[in-house]
Each structure stands twice: as structure tokens, then as C-alpha cells.
Amino acid sequence: MSQINVQNLTFCYEGSFDNIFENVSFSIDTNWKLGFIGRNGKGKTTFLNILLGKYEYSGSITTSAVFDYFPYEISEENMGRCAADFMEELKTGCESWRVICELDKLNISAELLYRSFGTLSFGEQTKVMLAILFSGENDFLLIDEPTNHLDQEARQVVKDYLKSKKGYILVSHDRNLLDACVDHVLVLNRCTIEVQNGNFSSWWENKRRKDHFSEMENEKHLREIAQMKRAAERSSRWAQKNENTKIGFDPLKEHDRSIATRSYIGAKTKKMQSRVKQFEHRMQREIEEKEGLLQDIERNRELKLSPLKYHKERLISAREYGFRYDGADEPVLNDFNFELRRGERVFLHGSNGCGKSTFIKNILVHASGSQPETGVESGILDVGSGMIISYISQDTGYLRGSIWEFCEQKNLDTSLFCTLLRQLDMERVQFEKNMEDYSEGQKEKVLIAASLMTPAHLYIWDEPLNYIDVFSRMQIEDLIMKYEPTMLMVEHDVDFQKKTATKIAQIGSYGIP
């Protein structure tokens, strides 16, 4: 057991407009199962890279811990080799028997180590890399979003596996995973950093209570400041009125007054002015106490959506539908029956590679009046004519250039688009950067904002929440529940699915957890 002590950490990317960290200090224990929580772009992955020694920084980080990072970077050359041949390159001193033991805990065969890495599914690659990661001893492991792109079955396996481990930082936006796997949280708030015992739900409940108390204290301070301001103004008027009586008086009306009265009036005015200054000092103290009360409060701004109403009740139907890619021996879809009606929010559920994204792409092709060019269909796929679809794909790699160029390409109002990104908690300074320099979560927000600005009969989102922070997920949940658009989604976040889905369509053989 050892400590990682961070003192006055300050870091900024070269050429960036803002500091990622500024005079940050905290301590964590390497024996913890630590969940790392924060908004997109706050610096979670950056901090992990700082621990790995990839960036120069000011301040100090002292520890005796040895770090290792998931996911490993797999070169093109190694994608064509089996993991057994290059795993020593990923983790120095890695021993095959230890990796095989870890694979057994992940419910997969050691045979995967001897297959070409590029032929493994995304879930299999993730499990092999986790087995290599945990095959060492006494390392403090930095695990960055291990469940992105994994189906629910694979997520459950990874969750059970991490529950049995300790000594790691886990970056994840999956509330279910964080609740199951961590015993402490490191939170990048809006202006501060905190370390707290517990999981995501316990921290979130504590935060809600703390935010409520801060808002009540803020209201109390505002009332007290307003009262003192009124009292100060009243005393100031009295002092000025009293001062005005020092010079000049009517001897007929004020027969009992003499010149000596001036000194008495002056002393009385001075006392009143002193009282005004006391009010001002007290107001300043109240203002100082009020400052910072609301700096870390998470206020999810209300998003808006303008769904269109399709003229028919049924938008999509599939009967015994199948699809086989050209050159493939087996169909990726076979005898699939499906129906989507107006107002429904249907989630496609199934293992990685079962054909969810293929089905979505074929829907888009049919909606455009074309036929798939890369394979052969069977059965019937009926997509309503004249239907406007707003689509989010898994791919963010094509995002290049500025926000203004993106809006021009998509025919979006730039001002409204930037306003929507601000509501999704993107800082204005990000608008000056090119999109290729965004974090993955920020790129996803660009796609979500573009979809929300598009009035549509049907919203098709293919894993839109990969890399999206927890707070924005809650914000999007609230949006969907308020406007109830017709949606077809692929999303493996259990909590999000439970809250928003009206129906789940199963593709493949295994059941829903």
C-alpha cells in the first residue's frame, strides 16, 4: 500500500487557451478501487497520461507506485500477430500462465492468445488486454473506459471481473459499472477536486444534499445582503438629511437653536455615516462568504427537441429479414422480425457482431430509396416513405476542421448550434479549436447537438453515449422523457436504457440481463 500525493499540479497543452489543471492538490491510496468522474474535457485521460510521464507539468506528484494503462496501443503490425507473441511488448515481464489465469476469470478461452489479434471481436480484444493488464503484481492500474462499444453481456463480465480486483483508477461514465466496482471516487468538479469514500450513487446523493445546502445558504446570504443594503441606504439618506441642517436655519421656526447646535448635528451625522460603513463592511463579508457556494453545482440546462409527427402509425417493419455481406459464408442477420410504431423508443439488444449496426444502415439505405450494395437481403424490410431521419453513427473520426465549417456543411445555424453545445456543457474556448483536437466525448456531443437541431420523424442513434459524461447522460434522459420522440437506438448503458426505452428488440440468442 502506498500513496500518490499530488501538490499544486498545473498543466496546459501547448497552444491551448486554458489550463486543464491549476494548482490542484489531493492524495489517493494505491490500494483503492478508485472511480474517476468528471465532465467531458475536464482532463481525466490527461491526468492518467501525466501519471504515465507522457506530459511535462508544474507542481509535484510523489509516489512509489508503478503505473500501467488500459487500453494498450496495438500497432498495425501487431494486429496481424497473436497476442502471445507481443504481450511482453505491452507489459514488461508478462508471463503467459498469469494471463491465462486472468482469461479464465474473464470467462474466455486461452486459445484467443494464439489467434491473430485483428480477427478478435472488440469484446475479445478488451478482455485479452485486461488479462494482460492484471497479470502483473503490485502495479497501480489506470483503466480508461473499458466498456465502451461492449454489449451488455461483455459489460457484465468486465464488471464482475473488476469487482474482484483492487488497486486501480477506473475512468467510466457507466453509473452501473461505477456503483459495482469502486470504493472511492475522485471527482473533477467544475472548480474543485474532491476525493470521497463510496461509489457513484453515494457520492451523487451527497452532492445533491451539498448542492441543496449551498443553494439555501446562497439564498440566505442574498436576503441578508439585500436587507443590509436597504438599511445602509436608509442610514445614508438620514445622514445626508441631517447634514443639510447644519448650515442655515429660520430663527422664527427654530427659536431654540443656536450656532452651537452645528457641532451636535455634525457628531450625529458622523455617527450615522459610521453606521453606513459598518453596513458596507458586513455586506462585503456576506458577499465573500457567498462567493464559491455555487461554483461546483451541476445544473443541467434543459435541452429542446422538435420531433415531427409521421403520418402513419407504423414507421418500420421487418418480416423474416436477413442480410449476408458479399463473400461471407453466413448471414449477419437471419429471420429477424421487427416493428417500430410512432412514439416508441426501441432499443436493439444483442451481442457485438449480431447485426445491430447493419440493420440500422440498411434502414437508412431503404429510407433513401436505394438497395444495399454490399450484400444480399432476404425477407421484407419496409421503411415508411418520405420519412425524415436524424442519424448518429458510432464513427467520430471524420470530424475535422472548425465548428463553423461543420455547421456550413450540415446547413445548421452556427449561433444556435454553439448555444446548444454550451447547454451540453462545452466551454466557449473549445469553439476556437479544430474538432480533431476535441476529446471523444466532445466529438460525440457535436453529433448529438447536430441531431437535436434536426426536426425529424425518427431519431436513429447508434451508441451515442460512448464517452459522454454522466451528467450529460442524465440531461439527455430528461430530454427524451419530456419530448418522447420516436427513436431507434443501440445503447448498452443499463440505467439509460431502463429509463428511456419503451421496447427492447432482441437480435441474437442470449437474454437481457
What does it look like?
This protein is of the alpha/beta class. A hairpin with a 7-residue loop joins strand 10 (314-325) and strand 11. It has 15 helices and 17 strands. Strands 5-6-7-3-8-9 form a six-stranded mixed beta sheet, with helices on both faces. A five-stranded parallel beta sheet has the order 14-15-16-12-17, sandwiched between helices. It has a three-stranded antiparallel beta sheet with strand order 2-1-4, with no helix packed on it. It has helices at residues 44-51, 76-79, 83-90, 96-105, 122-133, 152-163, 175-181, 200-243, 261-290, 356-367, 403-410, 414-423, 440-452, 470-483, 494-500, and strands at 3-11, 21-29, 33-38, 58-62, 66-70, 139-144, 168-171, 184-188, 193-197, 314-325, 333-341, 345-349, 375-383, 389-392, 458-462, 487-490, 503-506. The relative contact order is 0.11. The protein starts with a strand and ends in a 7-residue tail after the last strand.
